[in-house]
Amino acid sequence: MLIMLAKDVGYPTEYVERAFAVVFQCVPDRMENIWTYRSKAYRTVFTDEQSPAPEVRWDESMDDDKLVKQYTD
Length: 73
Hints:
Mean pLDDT: 80
Structural class: mainly alpha
Radius of gyration: 17 Å
Number of domains: 1
Shape: elongated
Largest sheet: none
InterPro entries: FAD/NAD-bd_sf
Distance between the termini: 52 Å
Number of strands: 0
């Protein structure tokens, strides 16, 4: 359905197919461990390049206390 919609509006269908591939890779990782699946590197949809693994865990990057401390020290 999304591929047909992409074709109708002139959007490159390979991007949609790549996005599906990332989602299908991400879902099992999430089912395996919901806390760590965001710390993995996936291929980008538009350039098909491997993204680097995050340097900081997602939960640490959302910690406002650390952010405030960084700018007040």
